[in-house]
């Protein structure tokens, strides 16, 4: 296997960017809540080692066992339903909160990227056929149903975006895309209307509130828009240079405790407040460069499987970054989704590093010119 690898093909730029993002995330997490430092540092070290090891494992071998990976992922999601534990009304985790926890929906994203890429490699000539598209819907749909039951709407949206991006890059017909858009636009309008009706059954009450908060923020300033409003205030207060890491004055949103669990979904508010505009731009630039390196590797992949895996990982990191920062700046509805490499959460970090490891291996076996 290693005889096919050439060191000169190893994308050290992507590796360094991913490590830099991990280190930056650990620093910001320590500033937000220093009690998480030890666990995050151990997790970061393990994830970096795992990323390098995974970069040396042939992605085609993983694609060959995609069905087995899918079954394992499905089993974990099934276990969450029956033996998972809940936090704030959401049952998404396995394990013990005092020892170690895993969030199977994070692993499901990586597994689905591999599975869909492997399936499309085998059915690339019939991509636009009804049977192939229905098969893709079923492959993605099964985990989506179980993730919806947790409930975890943000991860469902992520999986749908990743799946569509892979299909688009694989060569999905523009005619099908056009028809889908014509159907989805009125459906979206009908959905917004329906969830505001009494006794609607599609969303939980708190999910409805989050959607309505985005549409009518002025009506929810002291309730569901409270965190996002404080996040905007924190980011704006950082101005150009920020207030400095580990700032401990009550003049900070962090010390005033105006945002709960700031080290997770609202970590970008810490970045904005303590590192300012310059620090925020640096974090966004690192994440953007990671996405661009994944796209670059996808363009040079030796086969469709590699191209689609790299595309899927680029989409996952790109969309997730956009959504998280969009929530922190209130340009998107409030959703519980971490910022890749930066937010606290070891399962999320494992997922991001595993994705980069896969892409590094795709780049290691790129086309010969």
Protein described:
The chain has 369 residues and is an all-alpha fold. It has one domain. The chain has helices at 12-32, 37-54, 59-64, 66-83, 104-122, 130-148, 153-170, 174-195, 205-215, 226-237, 267-299, 304-328, 346-364, and strands at 85-87, 90-95, 101-102. Strands 1-2-3 form a 3-stranded antiparallel sheet, with helices on one face. Strand 2 (90-95) and strand 3 (101-102) form a beta hairpin. Helix 5 runs antiparallel to helix 12 and helix 12 runs antiparallel to helix 13. The model has no long low-confidence stretch (mean pLDDT 89).
Rg: 21 Å
Total individual domains: 1
Number of helices: 13
Q: Please state how the strands of the largest beta sheet are arranged side by side.
A: 1-2-3
Shape: globular
Low confidence ranges? none
The amount of helix comes to 55-70%
How many strand units? Answer: 3
Oligomer: single chain
First-to-last CA distance: 21 Å
Mean pLDDT over the residues:
89
Brief synopsis:
The protein is mainly alpha-helical. The protein is built from 13 helices and three strands, in the order ααααβββααααααααα.
Features:
single chain, 369 residues, 3% strand, three-stranded antiparallel β-sheet, globular
